[in-house]
Design a protein that fits this description.
Length: about 475
């Protein structure tokens, strides 16, 4: 989408605004130092620095105004920041003029003090616009990867929007589409604004997930300019996108409980994975503490050419996730492409591919893997035996495979294993208690949830064929 000249210039504001902040702060410090005899020769240098600061302050005001008319930010906060910025620019001009006129040091010291305060206050509100009102009290932990939310002890009794959808939007979308900033005129922090949409129209069509703009943007390639969240931001995971898709397809209710919505076989284990016991910190992924060198770029390029998605699991991290689910005709020999990434790979998605037990021989050497999705593949108990060395494994999805209880029991020595998904496998109903006993610290998901019917449900009645 093309942008206007004014929008283009406005986008330089984040670059320009740091120049007057640094330059003018230096001029204030030098002004105070010049009162001492040993620094009296700084007078000419202060004039030059003030002149540069004055020009960049004016340029920042112009670019800031052009950026503000895009309506991407809270109007009241923008107006406050804008007038403080203008005041800073005007005061820098006055300061420069009086300094050239060589007014008394006392007056210039006071001007420097006022200018210093204005820069700090203006910068604070600029930070609020960009990073949110809580950026000063933020602890430094990545909010998008780790947030404290109400623990879900019974997923079926949870309110679908308040307990599940809203925390996802809060962690990944509020920074651009919240109360403080509304990129594209869109807010997603409450139902009224979500239904309203943004400048380009509505983003959500109840019951029609694939036609909803919010889903279209989420599913675009990460390097596409319209992909959301932007590629440099923390991304929604595939399970999170699947839940949002299911929520919209189910009518996008903001008040119903999970049990009141029709649940597909695909969404059931994803929902159950959100169920927690007690107060705990919910994390999108767990990353090893130890540092690791950057992965070989040529290897990543080869995987990308094959249609395999390889991305960092977090910003400023060399640990990677690889997803084969979007690639065509994946077979066992394709897994060998991952071998150079043994140290960096921590999250591997191989669901719905044609791999077999041969692939698990290679995967068993990837010691840092913590999440492994093997659902709807051809693996059996023979392949599971090769995974016994994955001591960092926390999550494994074996839904729709031919594994049995004997094969799964081979993994009971993995002390970090937290979640095992085993729906639609060859495990007998009489064997679930045995598995739970052998995996006391893990959630063993057997699927088979019961969803109550309601009078409002739509039922399809077909007539039996006559013999």
């Amino acid at each position: 989408m093309l942008i206007t000249i004014s929008e283009f210039i406005g986008r330089f504001h984040p670059v320009l605004v740091h120049l007057p902040i640094g330059i003018l702060l230096v001029s204030c410090v030098l002004q105070w130092l010049s009162s001492h005899h040993r620094f009296k020769d700084l007078h000419q240098a202060i004039s030059i620095i003030l002149f540069c600061g004055m020009l960049t302050a004016v340029a920042s005001c112009i670019s800031g105004y052009l950026l503000s008319i895009s309506d991407d930010y809270d109007k009241q906060l923008v107006n406050l920041h804008q007038w403080l910025g203008i005041s800073t620019a005007v005061l820098s001009i006055v300061f420069y003029y009086l300094h050239r006129k060589k007014v008394s040091d006392k007056i210039r010291h006071w001007l420097a003090f006022i200018l210093f305060l204005l820069i700090i206050i203006t910068g604070h509100f600029g930070g609020t616009l960009t990073h949110g009102s809580d950026y000063l009290s933020f602890s430094g932990v990545d909010k998008s990867n780790s947030i404290i939310q109400k623990p879900i002890t019974n997923i079926q009794e949870s309110i679908i929007f308040d307990d599940i959808i809203q925390p996802m939007l809060q962690s990944k979308c509020y920074s651009c589409h919240g109360k403080t900033k509304q990129k594209g005129g869109l807010r997603v922090d409450d139902s009224l604004h979500i239904w309203k949409g943004g400048k380009d129209g509505i983003v959500l069509i109840a019951g029609k997930a694939d036609e909803s703009e919010i889903i279209k943007r989420l599913l675009l390639p990460r390097n596409h300019e319209d992909h959301m969240p932007p590629k440099e931001k923390s991304q929604l995971t595939e399970p999170e996108i699947a839940i949002i898709h299911w929520w919209i397809a189910s009518g996008a209710s903001f008040h119903k409980k999970v049990k009141e919505l029709q649940q597909t076989e695909k969404i059931k284990p994803i929902l159950l994975s959100l169920q927690k016991t007690g107060t705990e910190k919910i994390r999108v992924s767990d990353i090893p503490i130890a540092a690791v060198k950057k992965a070989d770029q040529q290897t990543i390029n080869k995987l990308t050419e094959r249609g395999i998605v390889v991305l960092p699991v977090a910003q400023n991290s060399n640990y990677l996730m690889a997803s084969f689910v979007t690639a065509d005709s994946i077979i066992d020999r394709d897994i060998a492409l991952l071998i150079p990434l043994q140290q960096q790979l921590v999250w591997l998605k191989l669901g719905n591919t044609s791999i077999s037990d041969s692939s698990l021989i290679i995967i068993g050497k990837f010691k840092n893997i913590s999440r492994l999705q093997l659902d709807h593949t051809k693996i059996t108990d023979t392949g599971l035996a090769h995974l016994r060395s994955l001591n960092n494994l926390q999550y494994i999805n074996l839904v729709g495979t031919k594994v049995t209880t004997q094969g799964v029991l081979l993994l009971n020595k993995l002390n970090n294993l937290q979640s095992v998904y085993l729906y639609q496998t060859f495990i007998k109903s009489t064997e679930w208690e045995l598995l739970k006993k052998n995996f006391p610290n893990s959630v063993i998901d057997s699927g088979g949830y019961s969803v109550p019917s309601f009078e409002s449900d739509t039922l399809e009645v077909t007539q039996k064929k006559k013999n």
